[in-house]
Write a structure and sequence with these properties.
24 helices; two-stranded antiparallel ribbon; transferase; mainly alpha; about 525 residues
């Protein structure tokens, strides 16, 4: 027969006063060492929270602005121009500049590849033909999810307006793609600032942990590589809304994030498991329906008006082969095995590869669900969220380098250990260098593929190690820095300090009625 789950102690609410913040300079040797040029760790009798302006959040935002500025300079080499023989100004990508200078950004080539440089185009409506008059001829449309595609289109329109102002002598001029990149970078930078803000607010008593997001080496390399900071902003703000017990707003933000990149939608899975365990299904249902509603509100008009163009994103993802950064490519290269469907012709889907990735990811999700229902103390939302997103990246056939940004805010909330996280982020960011020189090609003194794939393996092992540490903290809550400081689940919202209603132990589900829970609390009070 099902047995009643053992009683667990729910932490009492902790003070959120400035004096009760968790100070990294006291708990992290790395942070303590970083404070030495500024006078060392904060003293025991320091008056915290008294400065009229400088708060942990404002310091983190300032550091993020500095980091984003450096990130822009890292990409600036790829928007340089030169005078062609006919006197026109052209983008200077000669001699493999994007790879030698390691400044490559998808934003630059997409301006022309997605036909955004044509003022008459509209994403999902406008089509073009690739490989015309060949056996590989194919009709193409905007290949990004709806909000990402509209974001690019709006920036193209702003570029046209800027060029008109430059022609009138009101604004400085440049080649259109350079203006387009800079306008896009402005909004992407604001999105990363929103990510930093959301993490600082979610962490509550650990606002200084947001510094790890603000100065992340992955941000320095990839903030402007693609449009992923938009997705991290929606996901992080969605987590913050859930933490503030606003499931409707959380669902809307998660749904909008999924309309930019798919991954924010994965956060609903961990929430489902945790809400089942805590008996908070009403809050989860509200968030899930809001996410579906906001996603449909963005996608449905485009899907109805331009169904073929809208399906392009899903079609390409289904037909796409394994990415150079994926573990499947590592296995194929080092073993010579071509079982992952080999070379595909246009219009063919790698059925076996798609099946393997789906089965592995679903298997990982099942294991994470078991962990969420079986652990002695209910895991924190950020912990399971990090595990799900990491599992998707590790098992997916595509791991574009900027996808690692998805993990940064979740990792900071799930595993706030400064030395470990900075070590992983530095390692992951450094993969960019061999990737660029691999794309340069061996004929141009680039790296052989094996060297690049070796760094991919090291990166994946680092992410696996972080997952192991998160699982250890779930199984042994005393080792969790957040719970060791007296918190329960700062990002949990209605789950924070809630009692378990359903758990899975000994091969059976055990259920405790709300009355039993109330009596148990009353007994402890007496």
């Amino acid at each position: 027969m099902p047995t009643e789950p053992e009683q667990t102690t729910v932490p009492e609410p902790v003070s959120l006063d400035a004096a009760d913040r968790v100070l990294p300079s006291h708990s992290s040797p790395l942070a303590a060492g970083a404070t030495r040029p500024f006078g060392g760790p904060i003293g025991e009798h320091a008056a915290l929270g008294r400065h009229w302006f400088w708060s942990p959040l404002r310091v983190a935002l300032l550091l993020a602005v500095v980091g984003l500025t450096l990130s822009w300079f890292g990409k600036a080499a790829c928007i340089q121009q030169y005078s062609a023989e006919d006197g026109s100004l052209e983008l200077d990508w000669r001699s493999g500049r994007p790879y030698v200078a390691m400044c490559y950004s998808d934003v630059v080539p997409l301006y022309s590849a997605e036909r955004l440089n044509d003022p008459e185009t509209f994403p999902y409506k406008t089509s073009w033909v690739e490989n015309e008059d060949t056996a590989d001829e194919q009709v193409r449309y905007m290949e990004y999810p709806v909000l990402s595609g509209l974001f690019q289109w709006v920036n193209a329109k702003l570029t046209n307006a800027w060029l008109a102002g430059a022609d009138g002598g009101f604004l400085p001029g440049a080649i259109p793609v350079a203006i387009y990149f800079n306008l896009s970078a402005l909004w992407l930078a604001i999105a990363w600032l929103a990510t930093v803000w959301a993490v600082a607010r979610t962490a509550r008593r650990r606002p200084w942990d947001a510094v790890l997001v603000a100065v992340s080496p992955l941000m320095l390399v990839h903030a402007f590589t693609n449009f992923d900071t938009l997705a991290t902003a929606f996901a992080a703000c969605g987590v913050l809304a859930w933490a503030r017990r606003k499931p409707l707003l959380a669902g809307v933000l998660i749904g909008l994030g999924a309309a930019v990149k798919l991954y924010p939608l994965f956060l609903l899975g961990p929430l489902l498991i945790l809400c089942i365990r805590a008996g908070k299904m009403r809050a989860w249902t509200t968030a899930a329906l809001a996410a579906a509603g906001s996603w449909l509100a963005v996608n449905l008009p485009i899907a109805l008006a331009y169904p073929v163009g809208w399906r392009e994103f899903f079609r390409l993802n289904g037909e796409r082969g394994m990415d150079p950064d994926s573990l499947y490519n590592v296995i194929s290269h080092f073993t010579g095995w071509t079982g992952f469907d080999g070379i595909l012709k246009p219009g063919e889907s790698p059925v076996w590869l798609n099946t393997v990735t789906a089965v592995l990811f679903l298997g990982c999700c099942a294991g994470i669900a078991y962990l969420g229902l079986n652990s002695a103390i209910r895991p924190r939302f950020a912990q399971l969220g990090f595990l799900v997103v990491a599992a998707f990246l590790l098992t997916n056939k595509v791991w574009s380098p900027q996808y690692s940004l998805w993990l940064v805010p979740l990792a900071v909330l799930a595993l706030p250990r400064w030395r470990l996280l900075l070590g992983w982020m530095v390692l992951d960011a450094l993969v960019w260098a061999p990737r660029m020189f691999f794309y340069l090609g061996e004929d141009n003194r680039g790296l052989p593929e094996g060297w690049f794939l070796g760094t991919v393996v090291v990166r994946d092992l680092a992410v696996v190690a972080l997952c192991v540490l998160v699982i250890r903290d779930i199984r042994r809550p005393a080792s969790d820095p957040v719970r060791a400081a007296g918190d329960d689940d700062p990002s949990g919202g209605v789950l924070d300090r809630a009692r378990d209603v359903v758990v899975y132990r000994g091969g059976v589900f055990s259920r405790r009625s709300p009355v039993v829970g109330a009596r148990a609390r009353a007994g402890r009070a007496r």
